Amino acid sequence: MMQLYWLPQSVCTTIDHLCRLMLWSHDTWNRHWNLVSWKDVIKPKDYGGLVMRDTHSTNTSLLGKLIWDLIHHPDKPWVSLLTHKYLHSSPLLNYVIPPGDSHVW
């Protein structure tokens, strides 16, 4: 789902919270202190992190990859399908959404 839809910040925060609970093995009812901040955990391994990913950043990068493919790889089957069906063969960056149409697709 992360690579298809823009997740709200509250959903990303909840997913990160569940990842923290899984990592530190805490239950949700007791207050606890983590030994390392979440910002340190999501750093790359070379910088002392545990290579876990921040949900919001991952969601943004996956959606950016889709846009990149839509612009730079028109020969991919899914890109040509979406272009012909929804964009009517016009370039993505010049497309204007007609009134009454969905802003998602």
UniProtKB/TrEMBL annotation:
Organism whose genome encodes this protein: Cajanus cajan (Pigeon pea)
Protein name per its UniProtKB record: Ribonuclease H protein At1g65750 family
Domain of life: Eukaryota
